[in-house]
Design a protein that fits this description.
By secondary structure, the chain is mostly helical. It has a domain at 99-268: MetI-like fold (Orthogonal Bundle), CATH 1.10.3720. Helix content is 78%, strand content 0%. The protein is built from 13 helices and no strands. It has helices at residues 6-29, 39-44, 50-59, 66-78, 92-127, 132-146, 149-164, 175-210, 213-220, 225-262, 268-277, 281-309, 311-314. The longest helix has 38 residues, at 225-262. The chain is globular.
């Protein structure tokens, strides 16, 4: 069979996401129907009048059949209409837009820091396999996996933010520098939670690569360890890191939610928790839908990038 072109591969992946996104939207719609009893009554409260409950039922389309609700929901979502909050009356779109920046900063800065830490630690551990350094770094990795994310955040607040006064313990700051300063400790907390799994996978890959013949030949040719790492091993490491990001994108979302509550970051995670506690289900549905689409796009993007880094394995 002739190998698939990159354009064909990308088109195939895009087509594969259509039924997946349709299924995601159906599951998001079902969030209203998994509530025990009448969803409209749960939203309105036990003491609400029947007229109020009926109005909520009509506003949410609960008086229609499930297929009609689904078609209506998909149609509105494709037009960018995710409904209105049952508590504040604001559009869900505006709530998500207001809360997007802190979450985006946390995910981006935390992921970049995790990639940097994982690359440096795993390369050092693999290069000095079965030495005291390797054992020490492996111990730190196990410790990182074992520590709860909220506890790490609290320790950074108690041991770094409060004694030094260099970083805020809550909020998102003002302006670019304010945002950057406010995101330092949350990003560190994110990295401590995510990096250990990346380090373990990347260390194993580096150990296997260092045993390959082309590495031995590169050393015999006089190349430095840094040159070998940058010229020959970096692409393999990039593939592993992309794969780990794809695998861990779900845990990353959960970790960011915990971190946002710990540091009182006004992001999507905090908005989701507040919406659940207030039974504001249109907001819950909207944030869940955006998050699910984000996870799907990350998987799609990783597949496409991997196909360029390793065409023989990627174009399938």
């Amino acid at each position: 069979m002739a190998p698939m072109s990159h354009a064909g591969f990308i088109a195939k992946r895009l087509l594969q996401t259509i039924p997946l996104m349709a299924a995601i939207m159906f599951l998001v719609l079902l969030l209203l129907h998994v509530i025990p009893g009448d969803p409209a009554r749960a939203i309105a409260g036990l003491n609400a009048s029947e007229e109020t409950v009926q109005k909520i039922r009509e506003d949410l389309g609960l008086d229609k059949s499930l297929p009609v609700q689904y078609v209506t929901y998909v149609g509105r979502a494709l037009q960018g209409d995710l409904g209105k909050s049952t508590r504040s009356g604001r559009s869900v779109n505006s709530i998500i837009a207001d809360r997007m920046a802190p979450t985006a900063w946390l995910l981006l800065c935390g992921t970049l820091l995790s990639v940097l830490v994982s690359s440096l630690v795993s390369a050092a551990a693999a290069r000095r396999k079965d030495t005291l350094l390797d054992y020490g770094l492996s111990g730190l990795t196990v410790g990182g996996i074992s520590m709860p994310t909220y506890w790490v955040g609290l320790m950074l607040i108690l041991l770094v933010a409060l004694p030094t006064g260099l970083f805020p313990i809550s909020g998102f700051g003002e302006g670019f520098l304010g945002h950057l300063n406010a995101i330092v400790l949350p990003a560190c907390t994110f990295s401590i939670a995510i990096s250990p799994v990346m380090i373990r996978a990347l260390r194993a890959k580096f150990i296997a690569l260092y045993a390959q013949d082309f590495v031995m030949m590169s050393r015999a040719a006089g190349l430095s360890e840094r040159a070998i790492l940058l010229r020959h091993l970096s692409r393999h490491a990039a593939i592993i890191l992309l794969t780990m990001i794809s695998v861990q994108v779900g845990p990353m979302i959960f970790v960011s939610l915990v971190i946002e509550k710990t540091f009182s970051l006004p992001g999507l995670g905090e908005a989701l928790v507040n919406a659940v506690s207030q039974r504001d289900f249109p907001v819950v549905q909207g944030i869940t839908l955006v998050t699910a689409f984000f996870v799907t796009l990350v998987h799609l993007g990783v597949d496409i990038l991997t196909s360029f880094l390793n065409p023989r394995a990627g174009l399938q």
